[in-house]
Fold:
Amino acid sequence: MAVAFGDLLYFLPTKRRRSLLSNLHHCFPEKTEAERREIGRTSCRRTVEMALFVLVSPHYSLEQLLERFTLDPDFERTIDQNAENPEPAIIVVPHLCLMESLTLLPALSKTVPQVGTIYRPLKQAPLEDWVLRTRQRFGMRLLSRKEGFAEAIQMAREKKAVTILFDQNAGNIGALSTFMGRVCSSTELPGMLAARFKARVGAVWTERTGFWRGVIRLEELSKVRESVDGIFMANDWLEKKLRTDTGFQNDWLWLHDRWRTQDQWDRRLQLKHRRNSLEDELYWRGWDKIPKGTRIWVRLPNWLGDVIMAMPLLRAIRQGRPDAEITLLARKQFKPLLEAFPVGDRLITLPDKGSAGERAFFKGLALEYPDTQILLTNSFRGDREAKRIGAPQRFGILRKGKPRPFLTHHWELPTDFDEATVHQTELWRQFLAEFGLNKKPDFAPFKADELGGDFKVPAGGRQTIGLICGTENEPAKRWPVEQWRALIEQFPEEHFTLFGTKNDRAITDQVAESFASQSVLNRAGETNLIEYASELLSCRVLVTNDTGGMHLANALGVPVIVVFGPTNPIRTGPCFDGPKVLLQPPGCAPTGGGDISQVTPEKVAEALRELLKEAPTNA
Structure:
């Protein structure tokens, strides 16, 4: 029966099943999916075994139970030694499938001290009465949490034993710590009692030897000096057991979500708790930083400029959740750039729409069990992909008339919110604040020594003036060719470099025509994205249309002059704290809508002269 019902519990496509497999994937990433699933299936069977034992064992006599459960000889010797020289004992009990058998402890040894167990009382009187009768019939004493811990304190004072079912889901009354590399909330009670009464501390569990059969064992832990030591010691002991002992792996109740702390949707992007012991744990364990066990995935936008404008928020998320592994999902053309910029821990490049293997690709991502996915896109396709990946929390912005049924939570754009008057980064900040982000976006430009991947700082420092004459889309955003040429002519002693994509080459060829290559170097279409970014650092100043390269240069701290026309500098202007001048046509509204050709070369030249006075010539 336990096998059949356990398999049913395992195979039913419920949230519990995903939680089970997610827990195992987080804790044992080195194992194969098949190995993890085998542990999960066995754990489900053992969970049913435990439930049946709770129901049936009250009908067994003591003699029948003693035939099934024995006391480890080493445990018995420890009890006898403690009887000769009594000391208070704090016993921590892990959530294993036969933990109910521990009510037999007083009957298994003649010299065991009186044992009290702290438990959470049930609201239903008949069930509460049944629990008390069945669990106390062999001498175990139940100590209600509802009535405080006075009884437990008195028993410790009288040098008796207090057992505590310790877990990693103590909610607001616990202390933030880590377990199996993930932040959790652990009960402080064992450590508090042990430190106060200088008690011996031990872990007790039933090692399963067969169906409803086992040996009760004890492993003594170190003395506790501070109450938080009890948390770290108990969690560390259980971690080592789970990592090395297959019996523990199979018997632990993986269906329970032990890490349900700091995961409330409205506080997901901050690490805040009434009692935060993480700094103490870093010292206790000798760690440099908190393990990144929380999996936050971010679906980045599809345009280069938007990707750059999202980077200050990615920095803020990292600061708010130092325990998070931030995985970026992005179009494949951004791969070298995102590998260079330190804004994520991992990068997943997405397949093209309708490409071969797309379904299998997202099925594979679902087996990585992310905890939360943030969508900076607003498309049905992106939402559907997120649903297929299956993170239990999927956050996005909801606009009127654009339903997003595949999200689990959303920030609804206020009806009086005028997007034309708010920068894109600020819009995202308000969206993420709904989910707990309380760190400010970091607008400091990236330093060259921060960048990795294939990024290379150009030799020779900043010796050129850069020009981006094209745009990826919308021809109305392009300053006319003749005006670019007129600008160059006003600086005969300067060197210019033209940047852009292959699609911009027709424009840059016209701009560069008849100028000597020593004066105007045309690099459009001759660089990949990371080379493009690297070469922007050779610019003393960059003059540009409203395009992705402008945002990239601004993120690198290159001074920029941006010529706007129909587009909105308030919403999509450069956001990093580098030198910048934004130019619009005469009489144009601050939110854009003007004719870009009305910006004169003289106006741009004036701004360029001013920036060149302060522009650095070294990298």
The radius of gyration is 32 Å. The mean pLDDT is 93.
